[in-house]
Specification:
InterPro entries: Rhodanese-like_dom, Rhodanese-like_dom_sf, Thiosulfate_ST/Rhodanese-like, YgaP-like_TM. By secondary structure, the protein is of the alpha/beta class. It has helices spanning 6-15, 26-31, 47-52, 70-81, 93-99, 113-134, 140-156, 160-166; strands at residues 2-4, 19-22, 32-34, 38-39, 62-65, 87-90, 104-106.
Length: 181
């Protein structure tokens, strides 16, 4: 997989038009993003659709960015698996972009998805314990189910709870499920 650091990408952007997609959730994108990036969330990413929308620029590199580099690496893999090769992962993501003092668009603050997952998982575990103690021991299964889900997420990098929470109305920007600059 090809990679590029944020300073080099900024130099490329000053010299040429570059196509950068940000694969974070719409609310994360709305909070802060590189000035010229467009939002295509990872969970709805269709590599063929994205490359078809590039108006004949399919041979030009497509730069993929996220918060720190993990989700963009997953997106790059999706493109590569779909048969596309000129895909470049932006090292360090939007965090590195902002720390380097490069131009960003700042918008409405969002409650981070990771914290939403932590609160939900913690609530469900606590609820399972309380119900198991006061109502019926079988409610301990709720806590076990959440624990198993967290282990699955840690082992695979895929979190069904996060995907579900990300689709909640408060985590959307409006029509179409993406936020544009």
């Amino acid at each position: 997989m090809q990679t590029i650091d944020v300073k080099r990408l900024a130099e490329e952007q000053r010299r040429f038009h570059v196509d950068v997609i940000d694969v974070r959730m719409p609310t994360e994108f709305r909070e802060i993003h590189a000035q010229f990036a467009r939002n295509v969330p990872l969970d709805s990413l269709d590599p063929h659709e994205v490359l078809a929308s590039r108006n004949g620029a399919a041979d030009q590199p497509l730069f993929v960015i996220c918060r720190s580099g993990n989700r963009s690496a997953q997106a790059c893999k999706k493109f590569i698996d779909a048969g596309f090769e000129n895909i470049v992962n932006v090292e360090g993501g939007t965090t590195a972009w902002d720390k380097a003092g490069l131009p960003v668009v700042r918008g409405k603050k969002a409650f981070p998805l990771t914290q939403q997952v932590q609160l939900t998982a913690g609530f469900l575990v606590l609820l399972g314990v309380v119900l198991a103690y006061f109502v019926h021991p079988y409610f301990a299964g709720l806590s076990a189910f959440v624990g198993a889900g967290l282990m699955f997420a840690g082992a695979t990098g895929a979190c069904p709870m996060a995907s579900g929470i990300a689709r909640m109305p408060w985590n959307q920007c409006g029509g179409g499920g993406s936020c544009l600059a």
